[in-house]
Design brief:
It is built from no helices and ten strands. The protein is mainly beta. It is elongated, with a radius of gyration of 16 Å.
Length: 131
Protein backbone atom coordinates (compact mmCIF):
# COMPACT_ATOMS: atom_id res chain seq x y z
CA UNK A 1 0.00 0.00 0.00
CA UNK A 2 1.31 3.45 -0.89
CA UNK A 3 1.53 6.35 1.54
CA UNK A 4 1.28 10.08 1.07
CA UNK A 5 2.03 12.93 3.45
CA UNK A 6 -0.70 15.47 4.22
CA UNK A 7 -0.68 18.71 6.19
CA UNK A 8 -2.86 18.68 9.30
CA UNK A 9 -3.43 20.92 12.30
CA UNK A 10 -4.78 20.92 15.84
CA UNK A 11 -6.41 24.00 17.39
CA UNK A 12 -4.99 24.29 20.91
CA UNK A 13 -6.68 27.51 22.05
CA UNK A 14 -9.30 29.74 20.46
CA UNK A 15 -9.47 32.52 23.07
CA UNK A 16 -7.06 35.01 24.61
CA UNK A 17 -5.09 34.58 27.82
CA UNK A 18 -2.71 37.08 29.44
CA UNK A 19 0.58 35.87 30.91
CA UNK A 20 2.58 37.98 33.37
CA UNK A 21 6.30 37.34 33.87
CA UNK A 22 6.25 38.75 37.42
CA UNK A 23 3.78 36.02 38.36
CA UNK A 24 5.89 33.41 36.54
CA UNK A 25 2.93 32.46 34.38
CA UNK A 26 2.89 30.01 31.51
CA UNK A 27 0.36 28.15 29.45
CA UNK A 28 0.69 24.55 28.37
CA UNK A 29 -1.15 22.27 26.03
CA UNK A 30 -1.23 18.49 26.27
CA UNK A 31 -1.53 17.31 22.69
CA UNK A 32 -2.26 13.77 21.56
CA UNK A 33 -0.51 13.33 18.24
CA UNK A 34 -1.38 10.58 15.77
CA UNK A 35 1.07 7.70 15.39
CA UNK A 36 1.37 8.77 11.75
CA UNK A 37 2.87 12.16 12.80
CA UNK A 38 5.90 13.07 10.66
CA UNK A 39 8.69 14.49 12.81
CA UNK A 40 9.82 16.62 9.91
CA UNK A 41 12.44 17.01 7.25
CA UNK A 42 14.80 19.84 6.35
CA UNK A 43 11.96 21.43 4.36
CA UNK A 44 8.89 20.32 6.29
CA UNK A 45 8.82 20.92 10.05
CA UNK A 46 5.96 21.23 12.56
CA UNK A 47 4.83 24.83 13.09
CA UNK A 48 3.40 26.44 16.22
CA UNK A 49 1.36 29.53 15.32
CA UNK A 50 -0.43 32.00 17.58
CA UNK A 51 -1.51 35.60 17.95
CA UNK A 52 0.56 37.68 20.34
CA UNK A 53 0.03 41.04 22.03
CA UNK A 54 2.82 42.50 24.15
CA UNK A 55 2.06 45.21 26.69
CA UNK A 56 5.81 45.71 27.20
CA UNK A 57 9.05 44.08 26.05
CA UNK A 58 8.81 40.42 27.03
CA UNK A 59 11.02 37.35 26.80
CA UNK A 60 9.03 34.30 25.73
CA UNK A 61 10.01 30.65 25.75
CA UNK A 62 8.52 27.75 23.83
CA UNK A 63 9.10 24.22 25.08
CA UNK A 64 8.23 20.75 23.90
CA UNK A 65 8.16 17.87 26.39
CA UNK A 66 10.23 19.78 28.99
CA UNK A 67 12.87 21.00 26.53
CA UNK A 68 13.15 24.68 25.62
CA UNK A 69 13.17 24.91 21.85
CA UNK A 70 12.98 28.65 21.34
CA UNK A 71 13.35 31.88 23.28
CA UNK A 72 13.36 35.51 22.19
CA UNK A 73 12.54 39.01 23.31
CA UNK A 74 9.34 40.31 21.77
CA UNK A 75 9.15 44.08 21.79
CA UNK A 76 6.07 46.05 22.81
CA UNK A 77 3.33 46.10 20.19
CA UNK A 78 0.21 48.21 20.10
CA UNK A 79 -1.75 45.53 18.27
CA UNK A 80 -2.09 41.78 17.89
CA UNK A 81 0.51 40.16 15.64
CA UNK A 82 0.72 36.69 14.16
CA UNK A 83 3.68 34.64 15.35
CA UNK A 84 4.84 31.32 14.01
CA UNK A 85 7.80 29.17 14.93
CA UNK A 86 9.24 26.16 13.13
CA UNK A 87 9.71 23.41 15.72
CA UNK A 88 12.14 20.56 16.10
CA UNK A 89 9.85 17.67 15.27
CA UNK A 90 12.21 15.11 16.81
CA UNK A 91 11.13 16.36 20.26
CA UNK A 92 7.58 15.09 19.69
CA UNK A 93 6.49 11.53 20.45
CA UNK A 94 4.09 10.27 17.75
CA UNK A 95 1.11 8.32 19.07
CA UNK A 96 1.52 9.80 22.57
CA UNK A 97 0.50 12.87 24.55
CA UNK A 98 3.04 15.70 24.18
CA UNK A 99 3.29 18.91 26.20
CA UNK A 100 3.79 22.27 24.49
CA UNK A 101 4.64 25.16 26.81
CA UNK A 102 4.62 28.92 26.21
CA UNK A 103 6.16 30.82 29.13
CA UNK A 104 7.55 34.19 30.15
CA UNK A 105 10.84 34.81 31.87
CA UNK A 106 10.19 35.51 35.53
CA UNK A 107 11.38 38.80 36.97
CA UNK A 108 12.41 40.23 40.32
CA UNK A 109 10.48 43.46 39.81
CA UNK A 110 7.22 44.38 38.19
CA UNK A 111 9.01 46.99 36.06
CA UNK A 112 11.10 44.28 34.37
CA UNK A 113 8.36 41.69 34.09
CA UNK A 114 6.98 40.97 30.67
CA UNK A 115 3.31 40.68 29.89
CA UNK A 116 1.78 39.13 26.80
CA UNK A 117 -1.60 38.16 25.46
CA UNK A 118 -1.72 34.87 23.57
CA UNK A 119 -4.62 33.72 21.43
CA UNK A 120 -5.56 31.37 18.58
CA UNK A 121 -2.84 28.76 19.17
CA UNK A 122 -2.50 26.18 16.40
CA UNK A 123 -0.05 23.31 15.87
CA UNK A 124 0.48 22.48 12.20
CA UNK A 125 2.19 19.25 11.22
CA UNK A 126 2.32 16.51 8.63
CA UNK A 127 1.16 12.96 8.87
CA UNK A 128 1.38 9.95 6.59
CA UNK A 129 -1.76 8.21 5.39
CA UNK A 130 -2.28 5.06 3.35
CA UNK A 131 -3.89 5.40 -0.04
Amino acid sequence: MAQITLADYITLRDSAVTLNGFSNQSIHFDVSLPSTFVKGTSKARPILQFKLYTARDSKIFIGINNQTTFSTVVHKQNHWISWHELLNGSLFNPGETNRILIALQSSESDEDAGEVGISDVVLMFQQKIDI
